[in-house]
DNA sequence: CGATCACTTGATAATCCTCAATCCTTGTGG
DNA sequence: CCACAAGGATTGAGGATTATCAAGTGATCG
């Protein structure tokens, strides 16, 4: 287990960062804790386990997943550097309702429960930021819910690719397992592969090895809205 | 427009109620406002419109919906007496992301934005309750998301009936349009009807006129978990 | 350089949606 | 109180979408 200096606070950009509203004292308290290294594929926490703190992605990429029928994996969201994971269960005081798994080698900072709760109570602005994050998660989940219910897989994959493009912006291309992409839009690997292949033939995307590069975003937008 | 004395605070039971943590002063401020009557089918607010306050269901039943592809309607949740609707958009300060429509004749109390925000800032316990509601909504949406992604319609309808049974407990039977039931589980009217009909033949439910009564909950539980 | 993991493709089948016609229920106006 | 209109419920046939299963191929890593 490699230990790295925490850089979470720096990763989160400007006023977007949850940490931007902390006092120097509070910031220091958070930064005392060290990041831990997680290998690709390694779980950060598991559905139904008891929360120990909030995780802040310092580097890497993490999928937040929920187990569905047939043991299939629904990906709720993908957390990037600067993102937080696991705070909802801490606030509610119940077990995790989802798992978090590194999908790239990652370094992730743990803010222990006690410290997080302290911050929540001490710092109203911080609390409000968290509440806004919660609201965003609701919007996100409810939009996704509606999409999965009524939008065909083709439209959902087009949409997912556009969203992923932002998450992977610095890399210029999307490196996600076909299986994870499928989990993200609620379908199976094979269906995802077939549709990606269609997109390639339609010159909407390019594929290098395994990673996807969008070359015609407008085309994808059109497909993703095709059924509105 | 009939005006009725507000009874929201009473409808919400015991410590479950959001109002239970208000001071007498605050409670009075809330109760000054009168309920408004909404006929079955009448909208309370519409997706994309600007919030004016929080709605508290005093009597009746309200569906919270989101428009999906093909103009199909996804029902996010059904609000009962004592439930609140529309607070998320107020907190985030954006437009409604969903519509609310009365599915029974209802009387609904509007707590104006200014008063709600005042309560939020004055009363930490109240704020915390709201935050817990937000967390519950996330859990709810994410579970539903996972179900719709991977659980067959049959399982989802079984599950929905079990959940609705609680919402309709005092009535002893479920009175919901087949179309609304379909919207709740993310399918179309006809499919919902066929599955309900199966359940009837399998002696899991009974149907009087249009309303559904569960006679074998365990059977439905089994079906709803069939694909876990 | 063999083994493992990811990707791909095809054939087949299950699930679910669409369209269309009909029946039943409820409410309304005469 | 009845007839009729309107909306909800139902059923059938057909087709589109998507999942499953099986059998590979290509990439990556110790």
From TrEMBL, chains A, B:
Residues 38-120 form the Cyclic nucleotide-binding domain. It comes from the Bacteria. GO terms for cellular component: cytosol. GO terms for molecular function: DNA binding; DNA-binding transcription factor activity. Keywords: DNA-binding, Transcription, Transcription regulation. Gene3D superfamilies: Jelly Rolls, Winged helix-like DNA-binding domain superfamily/Winged helix DNA-binding domain. CDD domains: CAP_ED (cd00038). This is Crp/Fnr family transcriptional regulator. It comes from Flammeovirga agarivorans.
């Amino acid at each position: 287990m490699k230990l790295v200096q925490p850089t979470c606070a720096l990763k989160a950009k400007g006023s977007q960062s949850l940490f931007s509203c902390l006092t120097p004292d509070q910031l220091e308290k958070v930064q005392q804790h060290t990041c831990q290294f997680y290998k690709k594929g390694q779980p950060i926490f598991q559905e139904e386990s008891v929360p120990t703190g909030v995780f802040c992605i310092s580097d890497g990429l993490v999928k937040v997943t929920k187990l569905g029928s047939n043991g299939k994996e629904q990906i709720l969201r993908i957390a990037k550097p600067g993102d937080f994971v696991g705070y909802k269960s801490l606030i509610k005081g119940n077990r995790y309702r989802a798992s978090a798994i590194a999908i790239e080698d990652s370094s992730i900072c743990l803010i222990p429960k006690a410290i997080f709760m302290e911050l929540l109570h001490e710092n109203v602005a911080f609390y409000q930021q968290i509440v806004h994050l919660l609201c965003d998660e609701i919007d996100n989940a409810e939009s996704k819910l509606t999409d999965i219910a009524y939008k065909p897989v083709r439209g959902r994959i087009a949409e997912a690719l556009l969203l992923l493009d932002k998450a992977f912006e610095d890399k210029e291309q999307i490196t996600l397992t076909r299986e994870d992409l499928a989990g993200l839009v609620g379908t199976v690997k094979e269906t995802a592969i077939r549709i990606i292949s269609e997109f390639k033939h339609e010159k909407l995307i390019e594929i290098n090895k395994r990673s996807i590069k969008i070359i015609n975003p407008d085309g994808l937008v059109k497909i993703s809205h095709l059924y509105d």
